[in-house]
From TrEMBL:
Belongs to the CWC22 family. The gene is Nom1. It comes from Chauna torquata (Southern screamer). It comes from the Eukaryota. Plays a role in targeting PPP1CA to the nucleolus. This is Nucleolar MIF4G domain-containing protein 1. It is found in: Nucleus, Nucleolus. Pfam families: MIF4G. InterPro entries: ARM-type_fold, CWC22_splicing_factor, MIF4G-like_typ-3. Its main location: nucleus. One of its GO terms (molecular function) is RNA binding. GO terms for cellular component: nucleolus. Residues 181-208 form a coiled coil. The keyword Oxidoreductase does not apply. Residues 25-222 form the MIF4G domain.
Length: 341
C-alpha cells in the first residue's frame, strides 16, 4: 500500500492516466463554459455523474483548476458570472459531498493569501475575495472565515486593504450582521481605532472616511447608505439553490466552520473539517503535550500537600496536580476553575 502523500511525490503518471485526465479536463471545461442560470440544473447533474464515474481527487483537482482559471483574472469579473460559478460549487458541495467545497475553498484562500503578500496590480485579489464572499452567501463556509479575513485586512490597513474591506462588506455585510452582530460591532470599533491611528500615513483620506461610513451604515442596518448595494441577484440564486438541492443537507449544517489559520496551515495540521481526510505526521500531539507540561504547576503548593500526594501514590505530574487542586480548593467552583486551567 502506497499512502496518498507518497503517491503524490511519485509524479510518474503513465500516458494512459495523463490521457484520461486530459479527457476529463476537456469534458469539465466544456460544461463550465456553457454554465448559465437556466442550465445550472443540467450541468450540475452531469458533473455529479462525472464524480460518480471518476476518482474524487481527480475531479476536485480538475474542477478547482478550471474554475480558478475562469474566475481569477487580472480584470474584474462580472458579479453575475461569479455567483453562477460559486452556486455550481455549492450545489455539488451539498449533493456530492463537502470535500468538493472544502477543496475549492482551500485553493481559493491559499491563492488569496499568496497574492495579498505579493503586490499584484490587477484585480485578482478582488476576484478571489468575491469567490470567498459568495461561498459564504451560498452556505458553503461559515461567517467565521469572513471575520478572520476582515480582521487580517484591518490589522494591516494599507490602501489596498481598505479597498478589499469595502468590497467584502458591500457583498456580505448585511449577512454578517444577521449571523454575528457582536463580532461585526467589535470589528467596526477596531477599524475606527486603526483609522484614527493611521490618519497621517494614508494619502487617500476620503476612502477611509467612506469605509467608516459604510461600516456605520451596516451597524445601523441602513441599506440606502451603501451605493450600488443590491441583494436581489443573490436572493434569486439562493432560491434556485433551494430548488436544486432537495436533500435535507441543504441547510446550514453543511457549512464549513473553519478559520483562516486552519486553512492556511492545512498541510501542517491536517484537514479536520473533511471527514476521513488522510494526513501523515502528528505535530498537534507533540504541541499539546508540551503545553500541558507547562501548565501543570498551578501556583506554589506546600510541601505537606506534596507529601500527602506521594503517600497516595500520585506518581505522575498530572495526578499530583489534580490531587493538589482538589485538596487546596476553597469550594467546588474553585476546584472546577483550577482543573480547567
Amino acid at each position: 500500500y502506497v499512502p496518498p502523500q507518497v503517491r503524490k511525490a511519485q509524479v510518474t503518471l503513465d500516458d494512459k492516466k495523463r490521457e484520461e485526465l486530459g479527457r476529463l479536463k476537456k469534458m469539465v471545461n466544456g460544461l463550465i463554459n456553457r454554465l448559465s442560470e437556466p442550465n445550472l440544473s443540467s450541468i450540475s447533474g452531469q458533473l455529479e455523474e462525472l464524480y460518480m464515474a471518476n476518482s474524487r481527487k481527480d475531479m476536485n483537482d480538475t474542477l478547482t483548476d478550471i474554475l480558478m482559471n475562469a474566475c481569477v483574472t487580472a480584470v474584474a469579473m462580472p458579479a453575475r458570472l461569479m455567483m453562477e460559478h460559486v452556486l455550481l460549487v455549492s450545489i455539488l458541495h451539498h449533493t456530492v459531498g463537502i470535500e468538493v467545497g472544502a477543496h475549492f475553498l482551500e485553493a481559493v484562500v491559499k491563492k488569496f493569501d499568496e497574492l495579498c503578500k505579493s503586490d499584484v496590480e490587477g484585480k485578482e485579489c478582488e476576484n478571489l475575495l468575491a469567490l470567498i464572499a459568495h461561498l459564504y452567501n451560498f452556505h458553503v463556509v461559515h461567517s467565521l472565515l469572513i471575520f478572520d479575513i476582515l480582521k487580517k485586512l484591518v490589522s494591516t490597513f494599507t490602501e489596498k486593504d481598505i479597498e478589499l474591506i469595502l468590497f467584502l462588506l458591500k457583498n456580505v455585510g448585511f449577512s454578517l450582521r444577521k449571523d454575528d452582530a457582536l463580532a461585526l460591532k467589535d470589528l467596526i470599533s477596531e477599524a475606527q481605532s486603526k483609522a484614527n491611528a493611521a490618519e497621517k500615513k494614508l494619502k487617500d483620506q476620503t476612502r477611509v472616511r467612506f469605509m467608516l461610513e459604510t461600516m456605520l451604515a451596516l451597524r445601523n442596518n441602513d441599506m440606502r447608505k451603501i451605493p450600488g448595494y443590491d441583494p436581489e441577484p443573490v436572493e434569486k440564486l439562493r432560491k434556485l439553490q433551494r430548488t436544486l438541492v432537495h436533500s435535507s443537507s441543504s441547510g446550514k449544517e453543511t457549512q464549513l466552520r473553519v478559520s483562516l489559520e486552519s486553512l492556511l496551515n492545512a498541510d501542517q495540521v491536517g484537514r479536520w473539517w473533511i471527514i476521513g481526510s488522510s494526513w501523515s505526521g502528528a505535530p498537534m500531539i507533540n504541541n499539546t503535550n508540551s503545553k500541558t507540561q507547562q501548565k501543570l504547576h498551578i501556583g506554589k503548593v506546600s510541601s505537606k500537600i506534596m507529601e500527602l500526594a506521594r503517600k497516595q501514590r500520585m506518581n505522575t505530574d498530572i495526578r499530583r496536580s489534580i490531587f493538589c487542586v482538589l485538596m487546596t480548593s476553597e469550594d467546588f467552583l474553585d476546584a472546577f476553575e483550577k482543573l480547567l486551567k
